[in-house]
Amino acid sequence: MAAVTTTPTIGVLAVQGDVREHLAALRHGGATATTVRRPAELAAVDGLVIPGGESTTMDKLVRIFELQQPLRDHIAAGLPVYGSCAGMIMLADRLLDGAPGQQTLGGMDITVRRNAFGRQVDSFEDDLHVRELGGEPVRAVFIRAPWVEDAGDAVEPLARVEHGPAAGRIVAARQRNLLITSFHPEVTGDHRVHQLFVDIVRQSLRERS
Ligand code: GLN
Question: Of 11, 40, 190, 196, which is the most exposed, with the fewest CB atoms less than 10 Å away?
Answer without folding.
Answer: 40
